[in-house]
Amino acid sequence: MTSFAKRNDGRATHGGGVVYRLTGSAPELLLVTTRFDQSVWVLPKGHIEVGESSGQTAVREVFEEAGVTARIVEFLTRSRQVARGRTQRIDYYLLEMVAQGTSEEDRRIAWLAQEEAIHRITYDEPRDVLIQACARLAESRRTP
Question: Is CB count within 10 Å lower at the N or C end of the chain?
């Protein structure tokens, strides 16, 4: 038996996050490399474990992959991706960095300006999620 929940019923199989931190007036966004290839940049995400919500997974995975403690700001979207031949349904959340620590995994991390993050991220599906998060961040900065 595996430690993550197998979902064949349309529910999310993974939780992930678009993490931002405020530096000056513009937010910076977090990208991490994959475990398998240090040149591939992605959003932190992982399998939902038994008894865990997709939001809890997103927060946990951000900490494990990047050493970043974060809090959920809001749900962003569900993305469908195929990785290594398996379909993943990923609930993505907009997360705000609370503290920076040390990653538990051997990954590179990068805090990037929005345009640079959009340019650097490797795959189209998470790029679309990143673009959506940037729009939400811009909208929230305009709101008093």
Answer: C
Tokens 């019923």 belong to residue: 9
CATH homologous superfamily, domain 14-142? Nucleoside Triphosphate Pyrophosphohydrolase (3.90.79.10)
Q: How far apart (Å, rounded) are the C-alpha atoms in residues 126 and 42?
A: 7
What are the residues whose beta carbons fall under 8 Å from the beta carbon of 28, sequence distance 6 or more? Answer: 20, 21, 22, 111, 112, 113, 117
Closest among 83, 65, 88, 74 to 5, alpha carbons compared: 88
Query: What are the distances in angstroms from CA 16 to CA 6, 45, 79, 138, 144?
Result: 16, 4, 10, 20, 28
Condensed to tens digits (0 to 9), the pLDDT of residues 113-128 reads 999 999 999 999 999 9
- 65 close to 58: Cβ distance less than 8 angstroms: no
Give me the residue label for tokens 């290839």: 37
Summarised one tens digit per residue, pLDDT across range 58-73 is 999 999 999 999 999 9
Spatial CA neighbour of 123 closest among 45, 23, 6, 51: 45
